[in-house]
Amino acid sequence: MVGLDNASPPVLFVVGTAGAGKSSLVTAFQRWSRFLETEVIAVNLDPGAERVHYDAEFDVRELISLAEVMDEYDLGPNGAQILAADLVAAQAEDVAEQLHAISGELIVVDTPGQVELFAFREASSHLIEQLGKEQAAIIYLFDPMLSRSPSGFVSQMLLSSIVEFRLGLPTKNFLSKSDLLQPEDLDRILEWSERLESLEFALYKEAGGQRTEFAINQLRLMQNFSQAPGLTPLSSELEDGMADILTFAQALFGGMGDARDGFAQDIGNERQ
Ligand SMILES: Nc1nc2c(ncn2[C@@H]2O[C@H](COP(=O)(O)OP(=O)(O)O)[C@@H](O)[C@H]2O)c(=O)[nH]1
Ligand SMILES: [Mg+2]
């Protein structure tokens, strides 16, 4: 069901550290959505992707190929990734125009392997501005193995909020690849995300007083500003948590199929 007006669909950027499961999530979410009335359009903004398993309506590799950048500028893969991101930035208007032309109800965007290539280079701010901030949000993926230690978990909370701050978009945190975690580890991580005191206690044991105080104070401050607190488990492997992504999008942008609920509408109203 395509919107009645010509407004372009809202955009969810999938962001996270290298290997967090971004590309897999775009694949799983698109596959899952085929059974709904919501049409999910996938876009690839990672010039370094070797292979993607989703149907990309737009693929940045059509504009810029990492192999060509390495060749042409005599760069290794890391330097080429950075230059490629800047080359995409130079074409942000073009990319935004192509995304604007896409019809559908929701666009999910796969972003470059390393989080800093999306969060800290000019390319993304540029692109987000072109697309319109009101139309975009971030799905931030926590790496499950890193999340098992209190300091790894806290570091990702901080990184996620830095990305949220930097890009200025509503952000929701998801625990990626939750199928890889032992049930007791999963429970503990979710408990940390719900009760700051339990995280503080665990972190104190691991990192001592000074580091804990620093981190917990930061987190407390951040929580006051977070629009979508908490951490939701996901598994692309098992297609778990896909509905939670859709609910988050509906809460922000409304519409999209029939699953809209009261909570979604409340949040939507707050943003107006
Ligand atoms: N068990 C499991 N493995 C996953 C899941 N999602 C991704 N992976 C694996 O994690 C690795 C990195 O995933 P990828 O999507 O390429 O990460 P990206 O760098 O963030 O795009 C791949 O080997 C995936 O098969 C998941 O939900 N469960
Ligand atoms: Mg990827």
What does this structure look like?
- Helix 4 packs parallel to helix 6 (122-131).
- This protein has helices spanning 22-33, 66-73, 77-90, 92-100, 115-119, 122-131, 150-167, 183-194, 196-207, 209-225, 242-253, 262-270; strands spanning 11-16, 40-44, 56-59, 106-110, 136-142, 171-175, 231-233.
- 51% of the residues lie in helices and 13% in strands.
- The chain has a seven-stranded parallel beta sheet, sandwiched between helices.
- It is globular, with a radius of gyration of 19 Å.
- With 272 residues, the chain is an alpha/beta fold.
- It is built from twelve helices and seven strands.
- The protein binds guanosine-5'-diphosphate (GDP) and magnesium ion.
Q: Looking at CATH, which topology would you report? A: Rossmann fold
On the 0 to 100 scale, the average pLDDT is 87
Structural class: alpha/beta
Largest sheet, strands/sense/barrel: 7 strands, parallel
Q: What is the beta-strand fraction?
A: 5-15%
Describe this structure in a few short sentences.
The chain has 272 residues and is an alpha/beta fold.
Task: Write the SSE topology.
Elements: E1 11-16, H1 22-33, E2 40-44, E3 56-59, H2 66-73, H3 77-90, H4 92-100, E4 106-110, H5 115-119, H6 122-131, E5 136-142, H7 150-167, E6 171-175, H8 183-194, H9 196-207, H10 209-225, E7 231-233, H11 242-253, H12 262-270
Parallel strand pairs: 1-4, 1-5, 2-3, 2-4, 5-6, 6-7
Helix pairs in contact: 2-3, 3-6, 4-6, 7-10, 8-9, 9-10, 11-12
